[in-house]
Design goal:
ten-stranded mixed beta sheet, single chain, 15 helices, five-stranded mixed beta sheet, alpha/beta, 42% helix
Length: 381
Amino acid sequence: MNLTELRDEIDQLDLELIALFQKRMEIVTKVSDYKRENNLPTLDKGRESSKLLTLSQHLPEELSGFIYPLYDTIFEISRNYQHQRRRKPTSLYGEIFKAVETTPKMLKKNPVVACQGIEGAYSGLASKRLFKHPDVQYFSSFEGVFKAVEQGLCEYGILPLENSTAGSVNEVYRLLQLHDFKIVKSLRFKVDHNLAVKPGVKLEDIKEITSHPQALAQCSGLLDKLGKEVKVTPCENTALAAKIVAGSERQDLAAICSNISVAEYGLTAIEQDVQDQSNNYTRFICISKNLEIYPGADKTSIIAILPHHPGALYKVLSRFHVLGINLQKLESRPIPNKDFQFKFYFDLETSVYSEEFGTLINSLDEICQEFKYLGSYLEVV
């Protein structure tokens, strides 16, 4: 047989498979109705496991392993179809859509906003991009920002989550698990770093550079060029680095910081745009104590603990795939006091108004051992 004839055979088999799939889903509908009438759960793990084993035994050894991913997907499609037909909105789903209806159309113009750092810090600059006239309150740590929002000292908090050059801000991801808050907006903020010194200091005079670890990582090329004889000292944030240089009597100390910090602390930028990548962006999140969902929300973030057995993450990813929901970010973090068990952080691209979003939110308790809804929001640039 030639290739065309072989493909014709495959096309015919595919038509037969489609007809069988349709018939299978018709029976799934009857199963769904029966479960609804008898108040039975959609998922029957015992039956699925037994069926997979039985099916694998009907294939030659070289094919038996492929039956698991195939039928895992078919089972996932069946469960989603059942959920759509018998879906009962959860209390969380109700809270989300109450927030959609009651949240104002725009963020406040002049709220009290918590940021880590001091005047000139990138978090403060990001807050002024999101809000017209924010009353920025600075805290010495990221945890201080979370606590200020939790305790009602500040209406909102601004936190850096990841950078396009240096990656995730690990301390913030750690704290996401520990505090009670909701994400209401996110911002991609272009970060341009400067090598700043006291007036009159030259590049060859520099013996030490200080800045935040993320900024140092974003400027690794500059540090390599200066060589190992130049000491690199991390500090709490880029604005503090500028303040340290301005307040020092040393003439061999430099900071990596923003243009605003250069001006704020009376420094000179002897080199500008010293970051490794010209398109260097930091993603900030805006958090609130209350659930607020503003118009256009098309991203959702959740933290989940999954069952500790093979395939648990695969099943969650399959659910996203079947629903057509794009996974934009996946982070894992160890669970304290549980060896080699992890929480997963998901950023999902899905409109809060879509049917797929509703199906997912109303079925998360089925596919996750525990989960925490962090919010649905729009990301701005």
